[in-house]
Specification:
The protein is α/β, with parallel strands linked by helices. It folds into two domains: about 140 residues, 3-Layer(aba) Sandwich (Rossmann fold); about 160 residues, Alpha-Beta Complex (L-2-Hydroxyisocaproate Dehydrogenase, Chain A, domain 2), CATH 3.90.110. About 40% of the residues lie in helices and about 20% in strands. The strands form four sheets. A six-stranded parallel beta sheet has the order 3-2-1-4-5-6, sandwiched between helices. A three-stranded antiparallel beta sheet has the order 7-10-11, covered by helices on one side. Strands 12-13-14 form a three-stranded antiparallel beta sheet. It is globular, with a radius of gyration of 19 Å.
């Protein structure tokens, strides 16, 4: 890929730029932030690491959306971060407002780009961008499930003592509080996780995953999570840049899949050079269907609220 732009040079944006640059996923990275000097400083700092980590990616930054010009992929991390006691929905009005300028900049300067949203509430902002741009749904998607799945896999590794390399977890639905843990599809070396962990301990792991972001926020006090979200972004970017056709939980626009239409939510999807290339429909049991539909209801509630703003 030639050019990736990251809007939002805060901690998630900076860490994402570092992960992407260090693996030479593109020729250049443009960072954009409304704070004067912030994006330039981040770009220069990461550039100065290149001789040590041996990458050739060129980075630059600024405040003007014209830097988006000719981007193949735009990653949006900009937005008000959560503070202790805040829900993702509490950020709705502010972060949708911030996203409007970014979306308009993308439409003007990079009309053929892919858009990957990270800003919360990610499901609602992804859907908002889909409506605002009128672009096909394969080009607009969000990151959430990769992060939630990674958190759950990490907690499973901590509980069992087995290698995290062998653990494959699947989390769908809305991000965080309304996530849908697909334990039947979560395995250790292909063996269902229920063979290793009791039902009670699995329930505790699910609950910890559900509150994973809040746990880090409560510990840090002055910062929400950024390394794990950024690494999750890089995982998705890698699948797109190298056309790997990986199946990853992705915030997608539904058009009848899972019995729903007209919203964005986390489902398994094939990621490749065209972005979100295909949604994978899983066979859900009654419990999973109930959780997924509940998650849809809560996301739809925020979308309905968005329409009133």
């Amino acid at each position: 890929m030639n050019k990736i732009s990251i809007v939002g040079a805060g901690r998630v944006g900076e860490a994402a730029a570092q992960f992407i640059a260090s693996k030479d996923m593109c020729r250049e990275i443009a960072l954009i932030d409304i704070r004067e000097g912030a994006a330039e400083g981040v770009a220069l700092d990461i550039q100065e690491v290149s001789p040590l980590l041996k990458y050739d990616t060129r980075l630059y930054g600024g405040t003007d959306y014209s830097l988006l010009k000719d981007s193949n992929l735009i990653i949006i991390t900009a937005g008000l971060p959560r503070k202790p006691g805040m829900s993702r929905s509490d950020l709705l009005a502010t972060n949708v407002g911030i996203s409007n300028g970014i979306i308009e900049g993308a439409m003007k300067y990079a009309p053929n780009s892919l858009l990957l949203f990270v800003s919360n509430p990610v499901d609602v902002i992804t859907y908002h961008a889909f409506i605002k741009t009128g672009w096909p749904r394969n080009r607009i998607f969000g990151q959430a499930g990769v992060l939630d799945s990674s958190r759950m896999a990490s907690f499973i590794a901590m509980e069992t003592g087995y290698s995290s390399r062998d653990i494959s977890a699947m989390v769908l639905g809305g991000h965080g509080d309304t996530m849908v843990p697909m334990l039947r599809y979560t395995t250790i070396s292909g063996i269902p996780v229920s063979n290793f962990i009791s039902e009670k301990k699995l329930a505790a792991i699910v609950e910890r995953t559900r509150n994973g972001g809040a746990e880090i926020l409560a510990l840090r006090q002055n910062s929400s999570a950024y390394d794990a979200p950024a690494a999750s972004v890089a995982e998705m970017v890698d699948a797109i840049v190298y056309n790997r056709k990986r199946i990853l939980p992705t915030v997608c626009i539904l058009e009848g899949e899972y019995g729903h239409n007209g919203l964005a939510i986390g489902v398994p999807a094939v990621l490749g050079k065209s972005g979100m290339e295909k949604i994978i429909t899983l066979d859900m049991n009654d419990e999973e269907t109930t959780m997924f539909n509940n998650s849809v209801t809560l996301v739809q509630k925020d979308i309905d609220l968005l329409k009133q703003l």
